[in-house]
């Protein structure tokens, strides 16, 4: 993935684009995990969600490295 993406003539950082895509994917995962009852097994669901997002963003951000 390029380090910059042009959208409508405006250059955006690649990590911003990755974050937007990841937010959409995480929103779907969060709904599915809630329906399956995954959050009943964790101590602090909002903290668990944040930790999952940060881990996923870190892994997705590694795709930007050349």
Describe the structure.
The protein has one domain (4-64). It starts with a strand and ends in a 5-residue tail after the last helix. The protein contains two helices and two strands. The chain is elongated and about 45 Å long. It has a two-stranded antiparallel sheet. Helix content is 61%, strand content 12%. The protein is of the alpha+beta class. InterPro entries: DUF1656. Pfam families: DUF1656.
The N- to C-terminal Cα distance equals: 9 Å
As an assembly, this protein is single chain
- Report the principal-axis shape: elongated
Which structural class fits the helix and strand makeup?
A: alpha+beta
The largest pleated sheet is described as: 2 strands, antiparallel
Low-confidence stretches: none
- DSSP summary, beta strand count: 2
Rg over CA atoms? 15 Å
Label this structure with key terms.
single chain, 66 residues, alpha+beta, two-stranded antiparallel ribbon, 2 helices, 61% helix, membrane, cell membrane, transmembrane helix
SSE layout and pairings?
Elements: E1 4-7, E2 10-13, H1 14-36, H2 45-61
Antiparallel strand pairs: 1-2
Helix pairs in contact: 1-2
Short overview:
The chain is of the alpha+beta class and 66 residues long. It is built from 2 helices and 2 strands; from the N terminus they run E-E-H-H. It has a two-stranded antiparallel sheet.
